[in-house]
Structure formats: C-alpha cells, structure tokens
C-alpha cells in the first residue's frame, strides 16, 4: 500500500548500505542514508536517473544559492566553478569561458571533421607542435581568408599567386637562407655585384 506521512520520515540512527536506510523497490533497490559524516543515495540494482518534468531545469548546488551544474530540458548543460559559469553545451558544440588547459605527457588538443582532416596542438618535451595528424594541408587565415598554406608534402605557399609579401619595407627579415631564388630579379636592390 501507500504510506503518507504528514510530518516527514526520520531515521534517527546513522546508516550504511546494509542498515538504517530508507529504501524503495522490491529488493531495497534504492537506498538513502546518512553515514554520520556524509549523505548517500545508492542504487543497488540498475541505473540511477535524476529527472525533471520537461519544463523545469535540474540543478546541483554544493552550497545554497551557488550553482555547480544546471541541466536544461532540450537545451544546455552548464558547469560552474565557484558559481561562475565556465562550460556550456550549445546546439553547435560547446562554449568555454576562461582557459582550456590540457596537461600530461604529450597533452593534445584535437579538432576533427567527420571524414575530413584532424588537426592538433600538442606539447611534447620542450616543443609545441601545431599541425595535422592526417594527410591534409594546414591553412593560415586572417579576416576569415586563407593567406598561406602548409601543404601535406611540406611546402609553404601563399594561397594566391603574386599577392602577399614576406616582410615589408619597415619590417624586414634579418636574413633569408635559400639554395635557389627564382624570379626576374628586377626589383632586387643594394646587391654587391661581386656576389651576383
């Protein structure tokens, strides 16, 4: 039958998974108890779900009024640090507020497209690696426009022919080392004739 308590239900002794608990289910499948130092909800048989009613969020607050996690029906999941939102799922992925840190040996941040390229930023020893782990090019963009391409064969090319400069009149590279230079040479200046 159904038991209705007007003034609440109390178990006045400290409990455990085997004694002094409030239970539900034919085989005491769900147990709620206080150990003397902590409160526990224990699922003895099957999964444990915390559900809302499809119109109200489900929240976790480690301290009254301070959110740790909020779960919205048909919407976002938000994670908080000291009541400040740091992570949120969206309809297109996730948003992170603050720093995103990967630690450990060869810690790697990967981005990939299904059936396409996989890019990575990886720290290994004293070196930081940026590139792809797949057989694809790496494109460098500014203002949402590709300016330069590192091909999968190792060549570094401008994305458009005869359009972009390497350095400028006021911001120059100190030295350029190359085996062969191609071009007409019509605009080369201040060259020592003995070295041509």
Describe the structure.
The protein is an all-beta fold and 196 residues long. Helices cover 0% and strands 33% of the residues. The protein has no helices and 14 strands. The chain has strands at 22-24, 30-34, 39-43, 58-60, 69-71, 77-81, 84-89, 94-96, 108-112, 118-124, 127-132, 138-142, 145-150, 156-158. The strands form 4 sheets. The chain has a 5-stranded antiparallel sheet with strand order 4-5-6-7-8, with no helix packed on it. A 3-stranded antiparallel sheet has the order 1-2-3, with no helix packed on it. A 3-stranded antiparallel sheet has the order 9-10-11, with no helix packed on it. Strand 13 (145-150) and strand 14 (156-158) form a beta hairpin. The radius of gyration is 31 Å and the shape is rod-shaped. The termini are far apart. The model has no long low-confidence stretch (mean pLDDT 92).
In spatial order, strands of the major sheet run 4-5-6-7-8
- Taken as a percent bin, the fraction of beta residues is 25-35%
SSE topology string: EEEEEEEEEEEEEE
Structural class: mainly beta
Describe the global form. Answer: rod-shaped
C-alpha termini separation: 103 Å
If you compute it from the alpha carbons, what radius of gyration comes out, rounded to the nearest whole angstrom? 31 Å
Q: Give the total of beta strands.
A: 14
Detail the poorly predicted runs: none
Q: Average pLDDT, to the nearest integer?
A: 92
Q: Count of helices? A: 0
Please estimate the helix content.
under 10%
Main sheet? 5 strands, antiparallel
């Amino acid at each position: 039958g159904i038991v209705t308590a007007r003034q609440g239900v109390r178990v006045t002794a400290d409990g455990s998974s085997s004694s002094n608990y409030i239970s539900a289910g034919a085989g005491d499948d769900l147990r709620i108890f206080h150990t003397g130092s902590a409160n526990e909800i224990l699922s003895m048989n099957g999964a444990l779900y915390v559900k809302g009613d499809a119109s109200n969020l489900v929240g976790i607050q480690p301290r009254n009024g301070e959110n740790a996690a909020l779960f919205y029906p048909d919407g976002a999941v938000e994670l908080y640090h000291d009541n400040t939102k740091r992570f949120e799922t969206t309809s297109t992925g996730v948003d992170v507020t603050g720093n995103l840190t990967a630690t450990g040996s060869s810690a790697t941040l990967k981005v990939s497209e299904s059936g396409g390229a996989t890019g990575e930023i990886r720290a290994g020893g004293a070196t930081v690696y940026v590139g792809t782990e797949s057989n694809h090019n790496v494109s460098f963009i500014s203002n949402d426009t590709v300016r330069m391409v590192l091909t999968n064969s190792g060549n570094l090319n401008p994305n458009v022919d005869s359009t972009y400069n390497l350095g400028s009149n006021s911001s120059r590279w100190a030295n350029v080392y190359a085996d062969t230079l191609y071009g007409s040479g019509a605009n080369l200046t201040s060259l020592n004739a003995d070295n041509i």
